[in-house]
Specification:
- The complex is a heterodimer of chains A (281) and B (319).
- Chain A has 11 helices and no strands.
- Chain A has 281 residues and is mostly helical.
- In chain A, helix 2 packs antiparallel against helix 3, helix 3 packs antiparallel against helix 6 and helix 3 crosses helix 10.
- Chain B is α/β, with parallel strands linked by helices.
- In chain B, 34% of the residues lie in helices and 29% in strands.
- In chain B, helix 3 crosses helix 4 and helix 8 packs across helix 11.
- At the A-B interface, helix 1, helix 4 and helix 11 of A face helix 2 and helix 3 of B.
């Protein structure tokens, strides 16, 4: 028995495996060249679109933008860049898993010496990293060429808000992946979720201008609090102390969504292992 | 007593379906020794793939237990996965736009091979399976045979002692299937002394490759033994069908009187055709004696077909 190969638990999750998933994701994504470069061109164009939209407003400074310093272009840029990335966190696990199910590669990955969680969520790692690159690119482009104002930005505070939001929205994403494991489709009404989310979360305008009823729904979303906190940190220079309300709310979402996502994921995995439906799509 | 490579005791699996529970496996007790080439033989839906998937930790059993080299598939799946390679019946289990080499190197990393080892191992396997020339071509350009070979190569990346093959020659042409069978038998079992468990419903594949065979039907293991023994036993009770042109009177009685014939039954008789089912006292049909008896019959007969009533698979399953 001693001659048999065995793998210590510590070698199940290694940086080399994370890197393998990232490299595989990059090779696959970049093989669709038009689509791959199109994402970067589209991201750059969205910054141009924000600049044009902001120019349309001219020097008008709506009262609703006052808490953020009043610069609509910077407001739009932060909303567009972060909302795109954070909403990606909500659904990329499910979407990538759907693709893997369709291609038929989930089961071969699951029988390797890789923990089931990495086997099922690893395919999204490239998308997550690419999302960070695109978000940084958008912010940099806006600041360097279109005059986005980050002169008062409190970057460490923004990083903390971003990290808390990242955890909450990715936990949501893991729940979505668990949904895919069982029902084989992430969101039957994905487009509706997109529209609702972008409208309610205050991507293009402050949540405060929504009717009171819609504001109730808006503040039930972690994305709304994340965007408000990020804007206050980056446009107004708010410190962590000043942002305590947002941090507390996002932490609350984390504490609820993270265990919920782990429970949902474990339940989904058990379901497919009992029903033999892991490879179904 | 050595630890078996694979063992199951009272193994059962029931799938919940909207139409009620489906019992895919019932009370399967199996012992496969290290170094054995074991065939799981049975028709579609017999439970072969479910059994392989339980052993590969992809499905949890709903009853009984299964071990690979003593490790329980439900309680110690990570240890089991380190010992096994699984060849899927589906040829589309790779990333189509990646090359064969990129695919193998990705899976090698997931099996804990370093980058250098992954490269070396992938190259070795491309050579072994005659895929070296296509190693840097996208997987989606591979033929069915090449895909299945890459499938086997992937299962061997981490050099596991136990290999599960789920219908590895499915969809292949006869020549490619024969080449792969020879390679599997010669390389994996005779040279590398691996334990191989193969599912098949191809009688020829079973006979030519396996040391031992388990016959599965409706989720139950009907018999286990060497393929030749199972076929010999099955042949002992073979019913042969003799189809003649035209109605032939008195032939059943004439043949029943022969010492080589155990029994004769008239399956059908019309003016245009006569069909008889015969069993012989010897397990092999003494055709020469039979032809002589037919020639000796008063009425001239014209034979349309003569052979076993059921094909090999059906005979084995009816034993």
């Amino acid at each position: 028995m001693s001659a048999l190969p065995s793998i210590p638990e510590s070698r199940l999750l290694t940086p080399a495996k994370l890197l393998a998933f990232i490299q595989r994701g990059f090779l696959h994504a970049s093989s669709y060249r038009l689509n791959f470069f199109g994402a970067y061109v589209g991201t750059a164009l969205s910054v141009v679109f924000f600049a044009i939209l902001a120019r349309f407003y001219g020097n008008a400074r709506p009262a609703a933008l006052a808490p953020y310093g009043g610069d609509y272009f910077t407001f739009l840029l932060i909303g567009g860049a972060f909302a795109r990335y954070l909403s990606l966190g909500m659904r990329h696990f499910g979407r990538e898993l759907e693709l893997e199910l369709a291609v038929g590669t989930i089961e071969p990955v699951m029988v390797t010496a890789t923990p089931p969680a990495l086997a099922l969520l690893g395919p999204s790692l490239w998308t997550l990293l690419e999302g960070i690159a695109l978000m940084i690119g958008q912010i940099a482009l806006g600041a360097l060429f279109f005059g986005a104002d980050f002169s008062r930005a409190n970057w460490p505070a923004a990083l903390v808000v971003g990290a808390l939001a990242f955890v909450a929205l990715n936990a949501w994403g893991i729940i979505s992946a668990a949904f895919v494991l069982v029902f084989k489709r992430a969101e039957p009404l994905g487009w509706l979720v997109d529209v609702t989310l972008f409208m309610l979360a205050g991507v293009y305008f402050p949540v405060q201008i929504l009717p009171a009823v819609l504001q109730v729904f808006a503040y039930a979303l972690p994305l709304s609090h994340a965007l408000e906190g990020l804007r206050l940190a980056l446009m107004h220079g708010d410190s962590l102390v000043e942002l305590w309300r947002y941090l507390l709310i996002l932490l609350g979402f984390d504490l609820f969504l993270l265990p919920a996502s782990l429970i949902a994921f474990r339940a989904g995995l058990n379901h497919v292992k009992r029903t033999g439906s892991l490879g179904h799509y | 007593m050595t630890t078996p490579a694979v063992s199951t005791s009272g193994l059962a699996h029931t799938f919940p379906t909207p139409r009620g529970p489906v019992h895919a496996l019932r009370d399967v007790n199996l012992r496969i020794e290290p170094g054995q080439f074991f065939g799981l033989f049975g028709p579609n839906g017999a439970g072969k793939t479910t059994l392989i998937r339980i052993l590969a930790t992809l499905i949890l059993p709903t009853g009984g237990a299964a071990q690979v080299h003593g490790f329980d598939v439900a309680r110690e799946p990570a240890r089991v996965r380190a010992l096994i390679g699984l060849v899927f019946s589906s040829e589309n289990s790779f990333y189509g736009r990646l090359t064969g080499r990129q695919n193998l190197e990705f899976f090698a990393a997931l099996q804990n091979l370093s980058r250098a080892d992954a490269r070396r191992r992938a190259s070795e396997l491309f050579e072994l399976f005659g895929l070296a020339a296509a190693a840097d071509a996208p997987f989606q350009t591979y033929s069915t045979g090449m895909r299945q070979k890459l499938n086997v190569a992937r299962a061997l990346l981490h050099n596991p002692p136990v290999l599960f093959l789920d219908e590895p020659t499915k969809g292949m042409d006869v020549l490619t299937a024969a080449t792969l069978r020879t390679l599997l038998r010669a390389e994996l079992v005779e040279r590398q002394r691996k334990t191989v468990v193969l599912t098949t419903h191809d009688l020829e594949e079973m006979e030519s490759m396996c040391d031992q065979v388990g016959i599965l039907e409706q989720g139950q293991l009907r018999a286990v033994g060497a393929p030749a023994d199972l076929i010999r036993e099955a042949s002992a009770s073979v019913v042969y069908r003799l189809e003649l042109v035209g109605g032939v009177n008195g032939l059943a009685e004439h043949l029943a009187a022969l010492p080589i014939v155990e029994s004769v039954a008239i399956a059908s008789q019309t003016e245009s055709a006569t069909v008889l089912d015969l069993t012989f006292t010897d397990s092999l049909a003494p055709e020469r004696d039979l032809w002589q008896a037919l020639l000796a019959h008063a009425q001239r007969v014209k034979i349309k077909r003569f052979g076993p009533k059921d094909d090999g698979l059906a005979r084995l399953l009816k034993r």
